[in-house]
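Notes, p. 3: input format for complexes.
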Amino acid sequence: MEKFPVISLEKINGNERKATMEQIKDACENWGFFELVNHGIEPEFMDTVERLTKEHYRKVMEQRFKELVESKGLEAVQTEVSDMDWESTFHLRHLPVSNISEVPDLHDDYRKVMKEFALKLEKLAEELLDLLCENLGLEKGYLKNAFYGSRGPTFGTKVSNYPPCPKPDLIKGLRAHTDAGGIILLFQDDKVSGLQLLKDGQWIDVPPMRHSIVVNIGDQLEVITNGKYKSVLHRVIAQTDGTRMSIASFYNPGSDAVIYPAPTLVEKEAEEKNQVYPKFVFEDYMKLYTTVKFQPKEPRFEAMKAVEANVVLGPIATA
Ligand SMILES: [Fe+2]
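Output follows (319 residues plus fe (ii) ion):
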């Protein structure tokens, strides 16, 4: 079996740039996922994020989750649960406007650290987008600009914990889906595994690795690259032992950004065969996505195509 791509950014600006760019290209084209090491975010800082996240879970979230499980009788289910996930989560928004100061129950230190973490991840996401531009033959800044809309990108974090689950075959940690947005950066538990992606019809583990950042491609990059890069189905299998931490940050288009295939990436052949991805406002895609997240993505693209045929997109305000 092919090996899950682990890529070091250590020499991206040195004598291994070409080889590193090639690894990123291959991962984007063939996996939709890769794991980054030496990405520039200090290991000690990541340890602090992990410690505070786990502390917050134990102090604030764990009891709530136990109560939820009890109230729904999830411990004793006998048949597959298809409308719920075995996860405890909360969300933070960083861009266009941060909501961290309003999120309840967070310790001040934790708020501060998550704000700092988001800044580092935002920078890394933008660096990655430019590396993708280079590999795709797009001008520097193309993807960042494509996401910009009138207020800049949307950037947020979903903090999840997957507690030990007595019936992992009957209830998923997180059901299979592709991510709706742009590029996703994940800081996952280095001991408790569970994240899997679907490749060539097989579920493959995304291996836990200390201080790494897992990167994956969302639906919007699939559209902009006209399918050269694809978002890939993934899921979380809850484990019977250990609580899995997962901090996923989503660098997405602004809500009014108009998303469409980069003209230079639409080949004549695709045009002739009517295999061009749709053009739409990101917010409209998200409205649809939230109702069909756990269904295949192709009908989503088709639905946006149908809308596109009926609506002429007006000019987007830039002020
Ligand atoms: Fe996801």
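DSSP finds eight helices and 13 strands in the chain.
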